[in-house]
Amino acid sequence: MNIVIVTDDGYVQHAAVMLTSLFESNSSNRFHIFVFTNDISGENYSRLERLCAAYGNSISVHYPEKELLHNSNIDIMRLNSGGWSKMIYHKLFMPLILPKSVERCLFLDVDMVIVDDLAPLYNIKMVDYNIIAAVEDLLSCIPRKKALGLAMSDLYINSGVMVCDIEQWRKEEKRRPIFDFVYKWSDRVINEQDVIAAYMKGRIQLIPIRWNMVGCNYLRKKNVFPKYYEELTNARRHPAIHHFCTLIPPWYADSPHPFRKLYIKFLKIYAEKIGISVNLHLPYKNMPKSHWQKLRHVIANVLNFMDIIRQPGYVLHKWKY
């Protein structure tokens, strides 16, 4: 299986944790990892190489901004990214960066852990010449649809997990270069998900929520479209991929994510596999200002768990699904 990730030195530990979870949960599968980056040190890349080798998998690194400028005269730095790093656009150029031998790939964000076999996802049948298969985004995508001039029936996906038909995408790239599209839409798009929704309109296929369970899918208040309520209940009980976006991630001590311990579990396995030490003393994202503030937070969680109060932003525990 061809897996594409985007990372740099700031996120390389999270990438290593995600890859460890991928390899541990898919011991019967073999992978080639394509790392897209702007900046990764020799030491950090060596660690990823050693990790992949420990599981019998392979890895290679690409520098999209340099390669695209050199090979295709495409300057990603000219694109509007709404204040985000231009690295958010790397995934849009997979058809131009990946070797010609790659006809399909799975793109994975690095802020996640994998807890199931990915073969059924990777081998999903694409219908009607669709290019991407992904999970529909949350209700918060509605304003973005309006800003892009899309209909409510048009699909807007979370791009953290995408099965990509690279062969079909290359054909579309020849017909409509995606760089030209993004540059033309620079006054409307603010990130790669905007681009995918507009550029891939009519070429997107949906997959079950369990393949991309974002953090706020565990809130008491449901943030998915109502058509997914029943599916969400099952996905909470049987998730395949935990995507740590939308909540304080588990590399902070104050993460409320119900599966936050999985991050530490795979971090330890990663460290043991390649023989390094890691810091397990997690910092606070939002340090409590006082002991009283921390106590109030604990009391609120207890009252929510007992359903005495029902705050919509309360993160449900596993035994409450």
Automatic annotation (TrEMBL):
What's the domain of life for this entry?
Answer: Bacteria
Kindly indicate where the leader peptide sits in this chain: none
Q: Which GO terms describe its molecular function?
A: glycosyltransferase activity; metal ion binding
| UniProt keyword terms in alphabetical order | Glycosyltransferase, Metal-binding, Transferase
Q: What is this protein called?
A: Lipopolysaccharide biosynthesis protein, LPS:glycosyltransferase
Q: Which organism is it from?
A: Bacteroides faecichinchillae
Organism phylogeny: Bacteria, Pseudomonadati, Bacteroidota, Bacteroidia, Bacteroidales
